[in-house]
């Protein structure tokens, strides 16, 4: 592996030493670790990554038409209270927080801004811990290259009811983007942030290695949604992690629609009693798409709840892999931990893999996992046809219905409606009469 | 717990946990010494007077064994504690298996009598083979079955006398290279049962093998191959015990089953090795069209068991089933599970696994269900439930499920639960002691699965579970 | 001495006093009803008598036929002759009613004796018939998937099979319709004997139309504030628990 190519290009002397150290160690990890193989338990069933990752480079500031495209299409979240829009990791537009929230101490900053002015805020968390789910190598690449993203800090007791939105557009062919999202929600705060990942073109092949980190302090209420809708050429890694403390209420929703191959790692660590964490995901896979989902629910404290539901619909020769692990550590009694994976096979060539796992070291727990894979229920279809509903519409209704329990959890009518539209567009070409 | 509660059908085999803990002084005619190399393999082959192809098969397997790494990238690190150089790979008194108990050497005979084997044979078995260390000491089947053409012999005799029947399948269901321990077994196998059931013959009573380790540092590597010809039916049961030696003992078997069209095989294991035995067993079946293979697998003993019985569903409408119960007490790790490989349309498989972890015991379920894309209308159902008794008990579940194809459905459910303090209080209020209450709750947990077992075995299992539960509370 | 005698019992949960100098004596042959509003300590009393370990007994005494049972294990108390019909019977998956009751009866026999299965099933079926419990229930897991009424009838079945000296019935009537209530009452009335004492804990008077108590106690805030005959229950029903508070609690306070 050529180690010099990807050395991050924007490191500037102004960066604090701790950050330079983390970048260097990331670069070393990236260079030293081998490309993962399917023999690694964390990569079981994943197709071999034959791509030359080093061929993807950070892109310069995009041209105006790309920026215009991005700006006019950053509409998924209606009326965000604040917003950042990036194209190829360059900030092209920002809508700052209202003054009253800034006065209360809330900060919503682009990463560069945060590094320059709020290094102390970042240091305890930013790039501190790598993923444990297999993509350590790519997290290393992210760490050495990351220059774009959002940092959200909500002080104790401040509640923000309106959503905050961050858009990351990939634009240049062979371009690398490394978006980062850091949410620090202090005690009793409330916040909702939506990340949208998308492409400005249909054909340019890009590499996304994004990472997010959520720090949920006691009794904080955090909603984090991420919508991945890259073009069908893109390679994507999303490496998410979150920590929930005492009574933290954390809701995660991931919508996965795009990319040629998308790996999504999400690890949640519960360190305090009374925490309640939900992890929902909806994926529609078509053509030769591969969605590779790896999750971790770690319970380090008693009396907390985690609930995971991942639903996948598969068309054509697409593949999905769900591999989840619930870990209940010693002493984490009265834990309720659930994990469910449901796969709807809409083509006999599609391929759904499920690896739901439990590791339980406490005895007073309620844990379960379930995985089901099946086709559309023929009786259900027949019932609808007998009511005069055309085949195509019936299929669409059934597939949308399959996802409805996730969509309704989005909590925002307009966002739910926009996601339904995206799904319908995707189905329109898929479901034939 | 009083016996009358747990069994209403008292007339059953009585192998209990402590019963197996005795051994006789060693007196072997053939001893391959400690450690494993080509000479060890050649020695075993020579003692057995084997055909050249069998010897070649062994030597090739040894080569594979030496090359393959330990599977510790996913399996327990405890495997690394096996010292292959300290193990004795072949021990026998040079006896041919006797057809009557009277001809069996006194110490061996007494061993099996204490384990209750001759008594069971009289009561409900169609045939028995009793293996003492490397070779069978006794082997007999009812005469009428012999007349019908049923073959029930040891592995050496099977390969020597009936190569035309057994050779085509030997090492085909489980190739030597399948894993490190199947390679080890293929290199040094001795004993076990080779069974052939002719077309249309249905055995009404089970055949049984009993495996006994008597010598310290000994590795037992029996090899079993059962071929059920078209439309035939057979139930085979195996039991095993060993004394509690100071040092670890290795048991590594290979069991291959072939169910031809419309045949049914039921294979029952009650594994009750003493808790210093590494029990690393590969078991797999081929099921042809409309055939049915059922593995009933109970793991009570051993230090570490790694065993994932599998069925390769090769023919249309073939059915595979694994019912398993594992009980892990202090110092034990039961790493068990099932594999269902669907290779034909309309095949179905069912896996039900129940595990109980007591004290610091650890039970693990590992499963694989595979349905490739060209298949239609296949079904799998998997349920694994774990019960945790103490605060430091541990359970893990790692299934792997791949589904493609049309009309295929897969369903997997797993749960982890415990016996609650309020349930125990409720039962104690009715006059049961805490231990009895716990035993009853645990038996209740496995009860619906036990109902699927032949009666003799469900009764024995309940007794074993009760014995394991003693002292787990309070 | 043939009585269940509770004297000056004080019980805390998490440091909070629940029973306060509670006293009650139930001689064999009598049925006592204990009534009172919710949260007054009735169920706590039942569980403390049965030996539940979650409660902290700070002082007082409980004597069963003259022998102290305080601090004994629940199974010892049960074998000493006390039965508690639970307000919320627990579900025990996989354990059939027949095997469960058999285990409980076996526990009452000397070690070298075992139950005669034929006689056992005859007795079980007779008593099930009397309680209008379908015989198929014997094979069902204890309380699992039972309706509220089925659970309560199953409690009475266990009570009649185990033939205790003293029966405590904790809100056995709650959630029952009138038919089920009559069945339960019939079961209790059949067991009524000079050799047996009952404590019937209830929130409503209705059950006492069918099981006529010898004594009715009104409990309030951790102790008995008033006792009377069966008529008291009716008065209580018509006047409500506020009447208790006004007429007895306030007078005690004076």
What keyword list fits this structure?
heterotrimer; B: 474 residues; alpha/beta; twelve-stranded mixed β-sheet; ten-stranded mixed β-sheet; 12 helices; 24 strands; disordered N terminus; C: 254 residues; Rossmann fold; six-stranded mixed β-sheet; four-stranded antiparallel β-sheet; 8 helices
Shape estimate of chain C? globular
> Helical stretch count of chain C?
8
In angstroms, what separates the terminal alpha carbons of chain C?
34 Å
Protein chains sharing the most extensive interface: A-B, 37 and 38 residues
Main sheet: strands, sense, barrel of chain C = 6 strands, mixed
- In total, the number of domains of chain A comes to 2
Number of strands of chain A: 20
The CATH topology name of chain C reads: Rossmann fold
Assign a percent range to the helix content of chain C: 25-40%
Write down the domain tally of chain C. 1
Q: How much beta of chain C, percentage-wise?
A: 25-35%
Describe the protein:
The complex is a heterotrimer of chains A (433), B (474) and C (254). Chain A is α/β, with parallel strands linked by helices and 433 residues long. Chain A has two domains: 17-271, no CATH class; 376-433, no CATH class. Chain A is 22% helix and 39% strand. The longest helix of chain A is centred in the last third of the chain and has 18 residues, at 413-430. Chain A is globular, with a radius of gyration of 21 Å. Chain A starts with 16 loop residues before the first helix and ends with a helix. In chain A, 53% of the residues are buried. Mean pLDDT of chain A is 91; it is low at 1-11. Chain B is of the alpha/beta class and 474 residues long. Chain B contains twelve helices and 24 strands. In chain B, helix 2 (38-47) runs antiparallel to helix 3 (52-67), helix 10 crosses helix 11 and helix 11 (434-450) runs antiparallel to helix 12 (455-469). The model of chain B is unreliable at 1-17 (pLDDT under 50). Chain C has 254 residues and is of the alpha/beta class. A six-stranded mixed beta sheet of chain C has the order 6-9-10-3-11-12, sandwiched between helices. Classes of the chains: A alpha/beta (433), B alpha/beta (474), C alpha/beta (254). The interface between B and C is medium-sized, with 29 and 36 residues.
């Amino acid at each position: 592996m050529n180690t010099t190519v990807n050395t991050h290009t924007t490191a500037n002397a102004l960066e604090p030493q701790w950050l330079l150290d983390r970048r260097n160690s990331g670069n070393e990890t990236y260079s030293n670790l081998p490309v993962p193989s399917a023999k690694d338990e964390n990569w079981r069933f994943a197709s071999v990554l034959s791509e030359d990752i080093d061929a993807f480079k950070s892109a310069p500031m995009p041209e105006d038409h790309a920026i215009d495209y991005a700006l006019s299409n950053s509409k998924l979240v209606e009326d965000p209270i604040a917003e950042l829009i990036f194209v190829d990791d360059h900030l092209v537009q920002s809508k700052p927080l209202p003054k009253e929230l800034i006065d209360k101490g809330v900060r919503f900053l682009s990463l560069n801004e945060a590094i320059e002015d709020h290094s102390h805020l970042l240091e305890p968390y930013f790039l501190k811990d790598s993923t444990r789910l297999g993509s350590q190598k790519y997290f290393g690449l992210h760490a050495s290259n990351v220059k774009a993203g959002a940092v959200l800090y909500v002080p104790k007791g401040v509640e923000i009811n309106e959503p905050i939105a961050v858009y990351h557009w990939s634009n240049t062919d062979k371009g690398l983007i490394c978006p980062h999202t850091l949410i620090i929600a202090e005690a009793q705060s409330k916040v909702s942030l939506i990340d949208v990942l998308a492409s400005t073109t249909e054909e340019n092949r890009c590499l996304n290695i994004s990472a997010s980190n959520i720090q949920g302090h006691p009794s904080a209420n955090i909603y984090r949604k991420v919508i991945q809708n890259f073009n069908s050429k893109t390679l994507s890694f999303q490496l998410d992690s979150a920590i929930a403390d005492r009574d933290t209420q954390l809701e995660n929703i991931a919508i996965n629609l795009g990319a040629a191959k998308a790996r999504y790692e999400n690890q949640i660590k519960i360190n305090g009693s009374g925490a309640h964490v939900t992890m929902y995901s909806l994926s529609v896979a078509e053509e030769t798409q591969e969605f590779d989902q790896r999750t971790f629910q770690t319970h380090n404290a008693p009396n907390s709840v985690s609930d995971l539901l991942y639903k996948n619909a598969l068309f054509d020769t697409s593949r999905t892999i769900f591999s989840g692990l619930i870990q209940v550590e010693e002493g984490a009694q009265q834990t309720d931990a659930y994990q469910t994976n449901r796969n709807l096979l809409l083509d006999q060539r599609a391929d759904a893999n499920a690896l739901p796992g439990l590791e339980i070291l406490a005895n007073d727990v309620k844990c379960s996992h379930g995985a089901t894979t099946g086709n559309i229920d023929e009786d259900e279809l027949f019932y609808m046809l007998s009511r005069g509903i055309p085949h195509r519409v019936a299929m669409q209704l059934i597939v949308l219905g399959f996802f409805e329990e996730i969509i309704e959890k989005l909590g925002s009518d307009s966002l739910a409606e926009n996601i339904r539209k995206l799904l319908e567009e995707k189905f329109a070409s898929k479901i034939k009469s | 717990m009083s016996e009358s509660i747990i069994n209403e059908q008292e007339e059953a085999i009585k192998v209990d946990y402590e019963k197996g803990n005795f051994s006789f002084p060693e007196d072997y005619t053939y001893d391959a010494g400690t450690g494993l190399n080509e000479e060890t393999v050649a020695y075993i082959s020579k003692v057995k007077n084997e055909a050249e192809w069998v010897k070649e098969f062994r030597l090739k397997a040894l080569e594979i064994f030496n090359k393959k790494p330990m599977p510790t990238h996913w399996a327990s690190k405890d495997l690394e504690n096996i010292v292959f150089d300290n193990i004795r790979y072949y021990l026998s008194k040079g006896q041919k298996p006797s057809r009557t108990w009277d001809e069996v050497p006194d110490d061996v005979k007494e061993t099996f009598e204490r384990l209750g084997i001759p008594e069971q044979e009289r009561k409900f078995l169609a045939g028995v083979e009793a293996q003492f260390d490397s070779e069978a000491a006794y082997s007999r089947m009812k005469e009428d079955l012999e007349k019908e053409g049923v073959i029930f012999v040891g592995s050496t005799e099977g390969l020597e006398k009936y190569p035309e029947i057994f050779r085509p399948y030997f090492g085909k269901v489980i190739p030597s290279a399948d894993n490190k321990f199947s390679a080890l077994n293929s290199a040094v196998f001795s004993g076990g049962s080779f069974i052939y059931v002719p077309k249309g013959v249905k055995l009404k009573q089970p055949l049984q093998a009993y495996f006994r380790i008597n010598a310290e540092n000994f590795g037992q590597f029996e090899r079993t191959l059962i071929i059920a010809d078209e439309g035939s039916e057979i139930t085979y049961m195996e039991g095993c015990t060993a004394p509690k030696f100071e040092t670890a003992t290795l048991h590594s078997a290979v069991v291959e089953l072939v169910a031809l069209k419309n045949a049914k095989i039921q294979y029952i294991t009650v594994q009750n090795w003493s808790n210093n035995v590494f029990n690393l067993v590969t078991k797999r079946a081929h099921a042809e069209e409309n055939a049915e293979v059922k593995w009933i697998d109970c793991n009570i003993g051993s230090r570490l068991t790694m065993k994932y019985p599998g069925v390769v569903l090769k023919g249309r409408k073939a059915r595979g089933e694994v019912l398993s119960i594992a009980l892990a007490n202090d110092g034990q790790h039961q790493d068990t599970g099932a594999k269902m490989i669907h290779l034909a349309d309309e095949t179905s498989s069912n896996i039900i696994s129940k595990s109980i972890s007591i004290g610091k015991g650890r039970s693990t379920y590992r499963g694989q269900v595979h349905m490739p894309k060209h298949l239609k209308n296949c079904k799998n159902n998997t349920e694994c439930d774990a019960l945790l008794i103490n605060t430091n008990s541990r359970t893990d579940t790692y299934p792997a499920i791949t589904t493609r194809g049309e009309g295929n459905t897969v369903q997997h459910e797993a749960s982890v639960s415990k016996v609650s303090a309020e349930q125990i209080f409720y039962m104690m209020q009715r006059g049961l002691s805490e231990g009895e209450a716990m035993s009853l709750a645990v038996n209740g947990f496995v009860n619906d699965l036990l109902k699927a077992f032949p009666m003799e075995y469900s009764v024995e299992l309940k007794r074993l579970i009760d014995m394991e539960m003693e002292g787990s509370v309070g | 001495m043939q009585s269940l005698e509770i004297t000056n019992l004080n019980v805390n949960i998490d440091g909070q006093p629940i029973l306060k100098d509670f006293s009650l004596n139930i001689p064999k042959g009598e049925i006592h009803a204990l009534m009172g509003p919710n949260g007054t300590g009735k169920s706590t009393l039942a569980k403390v008598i049965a030996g539940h370990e979650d409660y902290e007994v700070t002082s007082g005494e409980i004597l069963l036929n003259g022998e102290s049972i305080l601090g004994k294990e629940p199974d010892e108390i049960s074998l000493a002759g006390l039965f508690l019909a639970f307000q919320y019977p627990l579900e025990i998956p996989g354990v059939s009613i027949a095997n469960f009751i058999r285990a409980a009866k076996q526990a009452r026999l000397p070690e070298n004796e075992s139950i005669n299965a034929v006689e056992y099933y005859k007795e079980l079926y007779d008593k099930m018939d009397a309680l209008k419990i379908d015989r198929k229930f014997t094979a069902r897991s204890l309380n699992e998937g039972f309706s509220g009424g089925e659970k309560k009838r199953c409690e009475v079945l266990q009570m009649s099979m185990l033939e205790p000296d003293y029966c405590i019935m904790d809100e056995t009537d709650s959630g029952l319709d009138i038919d089920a209530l009559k069945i339960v009452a019939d079961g209790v009335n059949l067991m009524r004997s000079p050799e047996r004492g009952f404590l019937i804990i209830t929130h409503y008077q209705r059950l006492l139309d069918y099981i006529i108590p010898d004594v009715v106690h009104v409990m309030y805030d951790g102790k008995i504030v008033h006792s009377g005959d069966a008529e008291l229950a009716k008065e209580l029903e018509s006047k409500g628990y506020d009447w208790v508070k006004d007429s007895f609690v306030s007078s005690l306070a004076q």
